[in-house]
Amino acid sequence: MVTDLKGRSLDSLFHLTGEEIEQILKTAELLKSQLLRGEGHPLLKGKTLAMIFEKPSTRTRVSFEVGMWQLGGYALYLNANDLQLGRGETVADTAQVLSRYVNGIMARVFAHQTIIDLVRYSKVPVINGLSDFTHPCQGLSDLFTIYEKKGPLSGLSLAYVGDANNVAHSLLYGCSKVGMDITLGCPKGYEPNPRVVSEAKEEGKRSGCKVKVTNDPKEAVRGADIVYTDVWTSMGKEKEREKRVKILKPYQVNAKLVKEAREDYLFMHCLPAHRGEEVTDEVADSKNSVIFDQAENRLHAQKALLALIM
């Protein structure tokens, strides 16, 4: 089933159907294969993407900027100092002004409400490049990487271990949409947003997958096809670092923990990694690790999204 995503915004994977996610992944596969063959695909020739960055990022900036260039378009980088938001201009006014100049907006922000306001007031598609609530572009890249390595996603199982942050929320939404079992192993007080879990479980009933949260990392990883972790101290939480390291230490992904997973498991991490904290070098650099393929696929998955909506 081919759906029309043209003109759509993406604030969360919750607002995509399983079929729409599949369409994005298939488009990413096509664009990636064309690129590897040296074939051009200027699908967005003459189009411009405004990129708003309240938070810095290596992967998000480079992948969107290079992606727009490969699609024949132009990406305009705007940090907090380039915009009038810091001087009192509302998000609503910013969205309406930018809509007059560009064909799409990507925003990497602190508060998810900023994304919601951009979507509400913009006349062009808005992509959530990261917010404190969710990270849908990372989720699409993760699903694309798993699809490349494992084939059909339905029936696979993913274990996420550690702090249930915005990436974990996107994985809950994404896995439940495509029929992939997901179990989160998190310490008490670091579990995912209950609303996200509830919505993922409802979606899981339709797609035929299981959604579970446990405080036991071994239980989460047992029999998993994919083992996923992220940093223990996200951007903006640096003051909590010492406390977080102490609480999350039993949730480190190391050689002992991954023995609970399937022998051919994939290890995933959205990067940057704090090696020696949430993951050991032994796991991050193992034959099971796909962390750099995963990082590369930000480019291909985001290009697919840009091409389909812009």
- Lateral strand order in the biggest sheet: 7-6-5-8-9
Sheet bearing the most strands, described? 5 strands, parallel
CATH topology of the largest domain: Rossmann fold
The average pLDDT is 96
Which keywords apply here?
310 residues, alpha/beta, Rossmann fold, 2 domains, 5-stranded parallel beta sheet, 4-stranded parallel beta sheet, 9 strands, globular
Walkthrough of the structure:
This protein is of the alpha/beta class. The protein has two domains: 13-135 and 297-309, Rossmann fold (3-Layer(aba) Sandwich), CATH 3.40.50.1370; 138-295, Rossmann fold (3-Layer(aba) Sandwich). Helices cover 44% and strands 14% of the residues. The strands form two sheets. The protein has a five-stranded parallel β-sheet with strand order 7-6-5-8-9. Strand 5 (157-161), helix 6 (166-178) and strand 6 (181-185) form a beta-alpha-beta unit. The mean pLDDT is 96.
